[in-house]
Design goal:
The chain has helices at residues 2-24, 27-33, 38-58, 60-68, 79-95, 127-132, 135-150, 153-183, 193-233, 237-246, 256-264, 267-271, 278-287, and strands at 71-72, 101-105, 111-114, 122-126. By secondary structure, it is mostly helical. The protein folds into 2 domains: 2-60 and 156-287, no CATH class; 65-150, 2-Layer Sandwich (Zincin-like). A 4-stranded mixed sheet has the order 1-2-4-3, with helices on both faces. Strand 3 and strand 4 form a beta hairpin.
């Protein structure tokens, strides 16, 4: 709940900062003289930019259950399910969070954690992951997901997304208004075609830039969760092995040329990726101390 309140306050603060900046730079008088109501636009941007991100966070857990068709383990039916629940409980206690729901879903090797609140989250693993990994490796993956929850990554990513959305909505409309009124000299009461075209174009351009920033943050949280799994287990080799198996690599120390490829590879697509390359994650974990 504390992080959710922080999310709300941060987005409000973003709007206050935008309004203060326009006042200090003198833009507010200019834009107001052109007929733009900045406080109203700020409120609109806050609702649109923050509202969508906040709603997606609140419904993230039920949507994840529905979309993956995962089965929550309410009462373990066998030794494997009992082990999964016990392992997550052990990590949750060590991380100082409430016991998450534990679920299994059909699919290729993967796992995820979701939920709006630390103490009522969901950790789910796929059947493919359980079938293709050793227990040590599955335990490391579970530690990785619990670390995501303990770090508050779901809420923090929503915060970043909300802030970016708010900036995009606000700035695209300010720029659209300037183009319409100043460049194209539209004197009518209603916004002209210049406003609508410019706003759409800027929504796309600024949205792309915002997506790059959000993806960069998402990649950083993966490194932290990998290190968190190593901390929860007390050793990092199981997480390295799990990553290597996911990436189709041999567990253990990576060759130098593979490390270089992981750090520098990826091209433009890497900018939009929510996860770093497997080789880069392994290299970072091998160098992690503690």
């Amino acid at each position: 709940m504390k992080r959710v309140m922080l999310l709300i306050l941060t987005n409000v603060a973003v709007m206050v900062v935008l309004l203060v900046m326009t006042r200090l730079l003198g833009f507010d008088q200019f834009l107001t003289a052109q007929g733009l109501n900045l406080p109203a636009l700020a409120g609109f941007s806050l609702v649109i930019g923050f509202g969508g991100a906040f709603i997606s966070l609140l419904i993230s857990k039920p949507m994840a259950k529905f979309s993956t068709k995962c089965q929550v383990i309410t009462q373990p039916r066998n030794a494997d399910e009992a082990w999964l629940v016990h392992t997550v409980q052990k990590f949750a206690e060590k991380a100082g969070i409430g016991m998450p729901e534990v679920a299994i879903y059909p699919g290729a090797p993967n796992a995820f954690a979701t939920g709006a609140f630390k103490n009522s989250a969901l950790v789910a693993v796929s059947t493919g992951l359980l079938q293709s990994m050793t227990r040590d490796e599955v335990e490391a993956v579970l530690g990785h997901e619990v670390a995501h929850i303990a770090n508050g990554d779901m809420v923090t990513l929503t915060l970043i997304q909300g802030v970016m959305n708010t900036f995009v909505v606000f700035l695209s409309r300010v720029i659209g208004y300037i183009v319409d009124r100043v460049v194209l000299r539209n004197q009518s009461d209603a916004p002209g075609i210049g406003y609508w075209v410019t706003t759409i174009v800027m929504d796309i351009v600024l949205g792309i830039l915002a997506a790059i920033i959000v993806a960069w943050f998402s990649r950083q949280r993966e490194f932290r969760a990998d290190a968190g799994a190593a901390h929860l287990m007390g050793r990092k080799q199981p997480m390295i092995n799990a990553l290597a198996r996911l990436g189709g690599l041999q567990p253990g120390q990576l060759p130098k040329e593979m490390q270089a490829m992981g750090i520098s590879g990826g091209g433009v697509r890497k900018w939009f990726s929510s996860h770093p390359p497997i080789a880069e994650r392994i290299a970072a974990l091998q160098q992690h101390q503690g």
